[in-house]
Amino acid sequence: MNSLHQQQSTGRVVLPPSELELMKSSGKPVPICSYCHRVRLDNGDPWNQDSWMKVNVDLHKEPSISLSHGICPTCLKGIAPGVKH
Ligand SMILES: [Zn+2]
What we know:
Blueprint: H1 17-26, E1 30-33, E2 39-40, E3 52-53, E4 67-70, H2 73-78
Parallel strand pairs: 1-4
Antiparallel strand pairs: 2-3
The structure holds zinc ion.
């Protein structure tokens, strides 16, 4: 049973494999949201939720990718205002 492609839902964008390969080869740290684990596109606006995409793989297990932990706009709003680090 292959249910991998049944997980499509509106409003949720998954990072294309080609982008993942670019992230691997660039060697640059990949910004990742610590809360929802979306990653930000290299040229993406950090304050635009569209720049943050879901990934189907565990980036923590990708030796060629270094992660830069942050927070995406949606999760930022979900955190109580006034809580700052
Ligand atoms: Zn998030």
